[in-house]
Specification:
2 helices
């Protein structure tokens, strides 16, 4: 659940889609 919040923040900050997918892999 913490990752979900982190992902949302990262997207707002303009992180790349690759980091988004990488974070999902950890989940």
């Amino acid at each position: 659940y913490g990752l979900s919040t982190k992902l949302a923040i990262q997207q707002i900050n303009g992180s790349s889609i690759y980091e988004y997918l990488w974070s999902w892999s950890i989940t």
